[in-house]
Write a structure and sequence with these properties.
Number of strands: 11
Strand content: over 45%
Shape: globular
Mean pLDDT: 95
Radius of gyration: 13 Å
Number of helices: 0
Largest sheet: 7 strands, mixed
Order of helices and strands: EEEEEEEEEEE
Length: about 120
């Protein structure tokens, strides 16, 4: 059974940093491209990054450019989303997801497996 479990979310103040983790079981992460997406209350789901199996990371939104970064550790079957300079606009549920195909050059949000999400709330 394939499982993706996100963790590391919480309530933080503006300007804070957080690192989210995504632990994968039931398959080998190295065989998949991994995405980080988020959905804010009342808004459409937004794809942030896709971390390729071989190539680098594709960023899909300027909203997190220079503040967020995504990485993966195939040896640990895990991935990470590091977030700096958080603002209330970053409040959302954050998801990791896997696709067996390469990362697209433009956002598609088509993934084969999804985690349950972890909530991040940024408020003073």
């Amino acid at each position: 059974q394939v499982q993706l479990v996100e963790s590391g979310g919480g309530l933080v103040q503006p300007g804070s940093s957080l690192t989210l983790s995504c632990v994968v079981s039931g398959l080998l992460l190295r065989d998949y491209s991994l995405g980080w997406l988020r959905q804010a209350p009342g808004k459409k789901r937004e794809e942030l990054f896709c971390v390729g199996r071989v190539r680098g990371t594709t960023l899909y939104t300027d909203a997190v450019s220079g503040r967020f970064s995504a990485s993966r550790d195939n040896a640990k079957n895990a991935a990470y989303l590091h977030m700096d300079a958080l603002s209330p606009d970053d409040t959302a549920t954050y998801y990791c997801a896997l696709r067996h195909t390469p990362c697209p050059t433009v956002t598609e949000s088509f993934y084969d497996y999804w985690g349950q999400g972890t909530q991040v709330a940024v408020s003073s």
